[in-house]
Amino acid sequence: MRKYYAFLLFLSFFFQNLCAKQITLEEAFGLANRFFASVTSDRGSNTRTTSSVLTLAYTSVIPADSKDTRAVSSLGLPTYYVFNADNNRGFVIVAADDRARSILAYSLTGSFGLENQPLQVRQWLSGYDIEIARLSEVSSVPEIAGMVSPYAGDITTRTMTTSVVEPLLGDIVWNQDTPFNNECPFDKNYSMTAPVGCVATAAAQIMKYYNYPLKGKGTKTYTCKILNKRLSVDFSNTTYDWVNMLSDYNGKYSEAQAKAAAILSYHVGVSCNMDYSVEGSGATAKDIATGLKNYFSYDNNLEYIERTHFNESDWSDFLKAELNEKRPILYFGEGPSGGHAFVCDGYDVNGFFHFNWGWGGISNGYYQISALEPQDLGIGSGMGAYNHYQAILIGIQPPNESSTHLARVQLNGTFNMQETETAREGTNKATIGFFNYGLQSFTGEVILGLYKDETLLTVLSSTAVTKLSPLGGGTKGFTFDEFSIPSSIENGTYRLLVAQKENGVSNYTIMLTPVNYPNYHIVEVTDNKVSYVKPEFEPLLSMVKKPEIISTKLYKGRKATFRVTVKNDGEEFYSYMGILLQKKSLDEEKERQYVGMFPTRIPKGATRTFEYSTDAIEVSPGDYDVVVVCDVDNAWSNRWWDAIGPNEF
Asked: Is 198 an active-site residue?
C-alpha cells in the first residue's frame, strides 16, 4: 500500500560546541568588500571604472522572544548581514557564523530592500535565519540551504580554478510593456494593450544578442484564443532593424528605436502562437522552438531538455557546457502561482548562475539553480520562485554546419524484471516505458544492453522504433522477451541498461530516468545463477526542527502559514511535500486537511526550508497534530494517502 512518510522529530541536539565564532559586523564588512572586489575585477568589458562602496542595508537577528527552542543560544544575535553597493550596483549577503559558508548570495545589479518582500523571498531569508541560528546548538555543520560558495572563512583563501562566463546578454534588459508591446493586440475588455509575454521577451533578447536574422521567413496566421483575435504576420516581408534596437529602453528613445523593438517582440510572439491577454500572455517551449527555426532561420538542432532527468550537480555541468559555447539559454520554470520564461546567460566561480528575468533589468543577478527566487518581481511573474518543472532550450544560434542533433528518448521510470533470479542459462523478461522528450520525432533502435562500467559488452535484446512523436507526445511500452546472459560473459557484477540509437548515428546512448528513479539493474553472474537487483535509490529525509505555525494560532476560516525545515541524507528528492492537519482522535475516520502538497526538490546532502500556506483552515475547532508529509516513494503519484507518525505540538 502506498503511503506518505511523516517526519519524526527527535530533540537530540543538546550539546555544546566550543569552536563556533560569531562574525562581527566589521569582519562581515571586510568579507563583503573582498568578495565584491574579487567578483568585479578582471571582468572584461564589464570591468568597473571605480570601486563599489558597500554600506550595511540589513542585519537579521533571531528575536529574543522567538519560539524556536533549537536556537536558544542565538537569541538576539545576528544570523546574516546584507550590504548594498552604491549606485544600485548590487548587494552581498554574508553569514554571521564562521562555520557557515561566508557568502550566501549576491548580485552585481540592483539593491536589497525589505519593503514589500514577496512570500518566496521571506521564505528564502527565514531559511538562512533558521539554519545559521542552529549552528550554535550542534557540533557539526549541516548543509545550509542556498549555500554554494566553495570556501569558508576568509574569502582570500579560496582558489579560483573554475572557468567563468560573463553575462552574455551584457546590458540587454528588455521588458514586456511599452515600447515592446506597442504592436501587440489591444484587449478591449481592459482597454489596454496585452504584454509581450515572457517567452517572446526571453527569445527576443537572445535574438538581439545575435542581431539575427536580417529578414524573416514565411508567413503565420492563427487565432489568439483568449482575445478571440485572428493574428497574421508576413515574416518574409520584414527586415529587422537591429541598428535601431537599443539594449536598454529604461531611458529616452526615439520613435524608430521603439518601433524596431516592438516589431521584433510582436513577431516573436506570433511565431510561437502567443495567447495574448492583459492578465498575462503565454506560449509553450515547443512553439517557440518551432518559431525560431521556421520563421527566423535559427539552427535546426536546437534542443529541449527537462531538468527532471538530472540531479543538481549534473544539471549545473550541463548548463555550464552550453554557456561555455557562448550560447544564452532560454530557461523555463514554475512556481506556486504559475510559470515564467527567462534567460540564463552566465556563471561564476562560486556555482551561481546569472539570470536575466526579462523585466527591464529588475532582479537580474546570480542565483543558485535550485533557488530561482528573484527578490523584486516584474510583469507576469506571479509569486516567483521558479524552482519546479525546470526546462531549457539549448543550441539557440544562427545556422551552424557543425551542430549536431542528439535524440532525447528517456525512460519514464525504472524498468521491471519478471524474475529477480534465474539459472545461469535461464531466460528473463524486462518491461520498459519510454518517451521522446526531444523536439524531433525519433526513428531508430532501443536495446537492452549488458554493461561493464561504461562499456557495452553485448546487446541482449532490441526493438525498432518508427516516428516516435516529440516533446512527450510519443510514448511507448515494450517487453524484451526471453533474453539470457551469454555463456561468454565471465562471472562478475554488471549493469543492465536500456539504450537508444537514432538511425544514422553510430553509438548507443544510455536512456535516463527521472532523477528519483534508478535507470539500471545490477546483474550478478555466478557459475550457477544470474541475479537481477534493483538498486536502492531513495531519499533519506528528516526534520531539522519541528514545524512552525507562523501565526502561532489557527482559526477556522482564516489564513495560515506553516514553515518546515527538512534535511536529505539520501538521493535527491523531487516529489510532493506539504502539511497534514489531523484531528487527535481515536476514531478511525479522523478529520483532516492537507496544506501545500506541491512539488519540492531537495538535493542530496542539502537542507531546505519551505513555507506552506492556505487561504482558509477548513477543519472544525479542536486539537490537531501538525504533520509534515511527503511522497516517500519519490514517485509523483497518489499524493493524498494518509500520513503516519504525526509530530505533535
From this structure: yes
